[in-house]
Amino acid sequence: MKTEITNLKNEMLEIDKELAELFEKRMEVAFKMNLLIKDGKISVSNTNSERAIVSKVTENQNDEMSSYTKVLFNTIFDLENSYENRKVYLNSKEANEIKNGIESTPEIFPKRASVACQGIEGSNSQLACEKMFSNPNIVFLNSFEAVFTAVEKGLCQYGMLPIENSLNGSVAEVYDLMKKNKFYIVKSVRMKINHALLANKGIKLSEIREIYSHNQALGQCSEFLKKMKEIKLNTSENTAIAAKFVADLNDHVSAAIATRDCAELYGLSVVADNIQNNDNNYTRFICISKKMEIYPGANKTSLMFTVPNKPGALYRIISKFAALGVNLTKLESRPIPDKDFEFMFHIDLDSSVFSEEILNAVCQLESGPESFVFLGSYLEI
After folding, report:
1. Of 128-132, 167-171, 247-251, 254-258, which gets the smallest average pLDDT?
2. d(Cα 291, Cα 280) in Å, to the nearest integer?
3. Rounded to whole angstroms, how far apart are CA atoms 205 and 170?
4. How far apart are CA 361 and CA 218, in angstroms?
5. How far are the Cα atoms of 48, 178, 196, 279 from residue 282, in angstroms, in the given order?
């Protein structure tokens, strides 16, 4: 039995070697043929289409094996296009912008900067900002859009925004604003978030009838809120704003979901602590800039794109990164308003664009999907 297994392994290794040699030869032949097509020496009509090739090689196979063969050849076609266009895309507009961004970025991320944050003192965006910068000049604004406007007009160098929560998912409004306005992520920070129910001093849990907080925080504490009957939930622009609002109300029926820091800051009491659905509650905050900045040590790249509504469209994009061994830490889709069954995809890659192979794969998306947005390559702490 052991000898039989060894023989099969050896036989498979020989087949794999032959496949690798044939794959290399095919890539070379395809490259030469495409050069002749570009030079006008042969027409596309004189070559076999991808569909015709798949049909030819699978004509003697059963249905199950022909399906696998089709997937194999579609992958080969994608790799063939990538190989052929590697130099073209490395000199594309997007590639040159990214290269210029790398070259113009300082070696060290600044310790001081003016940073726009949504909310007021005590907000989680402020805490994230203070973790990223040693001495930030924070400008508090009342909305996410106002943060983008402040950076757009040069009132602040950077903006700090929540982008994703481990319990409640992505902050859709921020993604929409990133797409609407051309901004770049230059750094991100991952922070553990503990929520508490805060009320004016002397208020008991049984007395509370209204709760104020940001909709993300309400979602992160949904299990706790289910246990509270006859409670009215009110959304606020920010958890810190909710805490201050309840403090200003100074009544006996209102409470806010915010951090313990806000209790001390606004003179409130902690009625219930750690009320989030799970202790493993983390929020990612991104630092945005109008100018592309790609600092040394960048280990993550974020992209947005749409694809045509047809079979294999998304796979063809993902396969480019799979072929390079790049891990996708996020793949999320959101429906596009006013468009039936069309989606915007958000992707995070565990890689930077310092590598030519990754830069090539990223820049191929510029001409592949129907729309493509490079959000940035950055370090996450």
Report:
1. 167-171
2. 34
3. 30
4. 39
5. 52, 21, 15, 9
Residue 39: which pLDDT band, with cuts at 50, 70 and 90? low
First-to-last alpha carbon distance for the chain, in angstroms, is 51
Q: Is 352 helix (H, G, I), strand (E, B) or coil?
A: coil
Q: Please, what sign has the CA dihedral across residues 130, 132, 137, 143?
A: negative
Strands 343-349 and 328-335, by their bridges, are antiparallel
Query: Looking up tokens 């310790």, which residue turns up?
Result: 111
Length of the chain, please?
A: 381
Structure tokens at 5: 């297994």
Q: What whole-number distance in Å separates Cα of residue 359 and Cα of residue 99? A: 9
pTM for the structure as a whole: 0.77
Mean pLDDT of the chain: 87
Beta strand spans in the chain (E): 114-118, 137-141, 158-165, 169-170, 184-192, 196-199, 210-213, 232-235, 254-258, 269-272, 282-289, 300-306, 328-335, 343-349, 371-380
Identity of residue 333: S
Cβ neighbour number for residue 216 with a 10 Å cutoff: 22
CB of 213 within 8 A of CB of 193?
no
pLDDT tops 70 at residue 88? no
Helix axes 2-38 and 63-90, enclosed angle (nearest 10): 50
pLDDT per position as a tens digit, 9-19: 999 999 999 99
CA–CA separation, 119 vs 139, rounded Å? 9
* Token pair in block for residue 381: 């702490």
Does pLDDT of 307 surpass 90? no
Q: How far apart are CA 298 and CA 188, in angstroms?
A: 10
Q: Going by C-beta distance under 8 Å and a sequence separation of 6 or more, which residues neighbour residue 102?
A: 294, 353, 354
Q: Give the residue from 260, 272, 274 showing the smallest Cα distance to 231.
A: 272
**Burial category of 244 from C-beta neighbours within 10 Å (exposed 0-12, middle 13-18, buried 19 and up):** buried
The H or E element that residue 263 is part of is helix 260-266
Eight-state DSSP code of residue 107 = S
